[in-house]
């Protein structure tokens, strides 16, 4: 399996997220929860994109890198790629988001430019853009516009791929700080017609399970937490691959 890992460090500070909730695209949190996809993305296309052996590109923040795990470089993305037998390119970078530049302070490291850099070397069947919890200082309208721009660009770059946005996540109580950010990402994904997976709405991390899944810093996940997150993402992708009339039958 081909994997390319970029080094990751801290996710960055979190506060009570962006104010002003936006209209939220229906979310995906389990195999039986109703899901919404773009009319141009069929369940059959998703099923093909997530099949074993698929070429997958995952771009995200330090969760995608795996900060907080025993090795510090093995997170949900690596677990998911191994579990589903994907040929994955995994591009995680610390503190970054759709707008946040991370420790470098350069926009070269935000999600959009990093997706662009894979355009000449990768031909993925599935593109997952994870995160945005680092965009907590960005106003909601700016963030929504950047999310839409980034996801549309990914669709244009890989017109035959399925593009999925995976929203911000964190163990409790940090998860509460991401509600506004998730609303902006959801709205941007809806505008781009991209399926959105929302860990917050799905209550993946609760007061009950967070102590067992949180890393020592309280903001990232440990090995068990990343494996759990990988399973939830996997279930959500499976849900997107089920035709509407068969879902929750």
Report a brief summary of the structure.
This protein has eight helices and five strands, in the order αβααβαβαβαβαα. With 249 residues, the protein is an alpha/beta fold. Strand 4, helix 6 and strand 5 form a beta-alpha-beta unit.
Q: What key attributes describe this structure?
A:
249 residues, alpha/beta, Rossmann fold, globular
Q: What name is given to the CATH topology?
A: Rossmann fold
So, the CATH homologous superfamily? SGNH hydrolase
Q: Total number of β-strand segments?
A: 5
Question: What is the structural class?
Answer: alpha/beta
Biggest sheet details: 5 strands, parallel
SS element count, helices: 8
Radius of gyration over all CA atoms, rounded: 16 Å
Mean pLDDT: 84
What's the number of domains? 1
State the share of residues found in helices, binned by percent.
25-40%
Rounded to the nearest angstrom, the distance between the terminal CA atoms is: 35 Å
Question: Could you describe the 3D structure shown?
Answer:
The structure is a single chain. This protein has 249 residues and is of the alpha/beta class. The protein has a single domain, classed as SGNH hydrolase (Rossmann fold), CATH 3.40.50. It contains 8 helices and 5 strands. Strand 4, helix 6 and strand 5 form a beta-alpha-beta unit. Helix 3 crosses helix 8 and helix 4 packs parallel to helix 5. The termini are far apart.
């Amino acid at each position: 399996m081909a994997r390319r890992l970029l080094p990751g460090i801290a996710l960055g500070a979190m506060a009570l997220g962006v104010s002003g909730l936006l209209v939220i695209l229906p979310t995906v949190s389990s195999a039986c929860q109703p899901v919404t996809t773009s009319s141009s993305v069929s369940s059959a296309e998703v099923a093909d994109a997530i099949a074993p052996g698929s070429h997958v590109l995952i771009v995200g923040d330090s969760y995608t890198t795996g900060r907080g795990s025993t090795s510090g470089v093995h997170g949900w993305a690596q677990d998911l790629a191994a579990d589903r037998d994907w040929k994955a390119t995994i591009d995680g970078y610390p503190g970054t988001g759709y707008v946040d530049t991370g420790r470098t302070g350069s926009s070269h490291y935000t999600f959009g430019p990093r997706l662009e850099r894979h355009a000449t070397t990768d031909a993925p069947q599935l593109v997952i853009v994870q995160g945005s919890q680092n965009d907590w200082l960005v106003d909601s309208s700016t963030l929504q516009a950047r999310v839409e721009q980034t996801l549309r660009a990914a669709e244009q770059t890989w017109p035959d791929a399925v593009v999925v946005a995976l929203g911000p996540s964190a163990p409790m109580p940090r998860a509460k700080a991401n509600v506004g950010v998730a609303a902006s990402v959801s709205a941007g994904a809806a505008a781009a017609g991209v399926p959105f997976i929302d860990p917050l709405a799905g209550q993946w991390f609760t007061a009950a399970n967070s102590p067992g899944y949180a890393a020592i810093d309280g903001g990232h996940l440990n090995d068990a937490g990343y494996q759990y997150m990988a399973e939830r993402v996997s279930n959500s992708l499976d849900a997107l691959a089920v035709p509407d009339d068969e879902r929750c039958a």
